[in-house]
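User: Here's a protein and a ligand (fe (iii) ion). What would the complex look like?
Assistant: Let me lay out the input and then the predicted complex.
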Amino acid sequence: MIKLLSTPSQILTINTSGKNLKRGKDLSEVNAVDEHSIVIEDDIIKDIIPNSSVKKKSFDVVLDLDDKIVLPGLIECHTHTAFTGSRADEFRQKLDGIDYEKIAESGGGINSTVRAVRKSSFEEIVNEVKPRIDNFIAQGITTLEIKSGYGLDFENEIKLLQVINYLNEIYAIDIIPTFLGAHTYPPEHFNNQDEYIEIIKDKMLPHIAKQRLARFCDGFCEATAFSADEIKTIFASADANGFKLRLHTEQFNAIGGLDAALSFNAVSVDHLEVLKEDDIKKLANSDTVAVLLPGVSFFLNYQYAPARKLIDNNVVIALATDFNPGSSHISSLSLIMSFAALKMKMSIEETINAVTINAAKVLCLNDKVGSIEIGKRADFSVFNCQEYANIVYDIGKNLNCITMKNGDIIYNSTELSFN
Ligand code: NIG
Ligand code: FE
């Protein structure tokens, strides 16, 4: 079936010069074109043609997008969406001045959600997570990463990964599971931490690899979680089991996580709020993406990652919500783009590339999605606004009105349809 997305006011991002990622000066280019339409064949972008050469009759169906702006389907590359329960009580404690690390030390934090998840059945988790996925789709997100990390024993980590894989089957969007068994130590291993690492290495990783429950293995290198040496031990095993590696690191303390991740060629290092000036050059020109999470800084009233310095040093950067119940209970990706612009001094164009092509790079899908280029998946978000700046400028507002995945409309708040 040949479809036409006809006469939008603008299309972006249509060109990555064959690189499928953006860094340095390229990051501020969204390559917008006016007066063009998009041809889709089945689930693939076939062509981007000038409106003057459009003959509507030669298409099976046409969707008129007058005055709308078409972007690639947005990519949310870092979330902890698979949780149950609420941590509103901790939010109250935070408002009273108790900080996130203190709450974690006293048994709250990640382990409070672990208690909730362990009590929840597969079906209960699915039912709590579904509306969150619907909310991401309504924003124009067509590829969504979700981590485990709230089970922290064999049974419950597998249960979470099975939930995430099941959700990927029943939803039209791509849901990418990440194994985060090394999120923190569960209470039963506070006093025998080596044993938990053995369980990750000898039981969880081989099983997850064999059952193909996740392609990515993530960890949290932090004073309250895993040391750099512990992460290296886990990564060596994950690497041997064929996983691609990611790391939450330099969030509160710089304790060697960045070096550990780089020594394993991790696909991303995430957070970096306390990244040292001298360490920025270690990421310069590397293919490891710096995933910045300004929602966490906002939510915790904490310092922001040095986005400008990273960009000026040619580091590939992506943006994500880090949606989770404790440190970023924020599920709006456009709000994150606004924070990135206002708090980290990123330009509007830089924020757009950071949630499209560079976020696709984090998930190793940048040859298939993340830009509107011939041969890529027909994944689009359609924004109802005068100019693309509104996506970032209209703070906290969802301007996406149509989400398309593989050439099909999967969310639509307009009266428009393929005719
Ligand atoms: O990415 N840094 C560790 N993990 C999450 C927080 C998860 C939680 O508090 O539940 C994060 O910020
Ligand atoms: Fe996270």
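Summary: The two ends are 13 Å apart (CA to CA).
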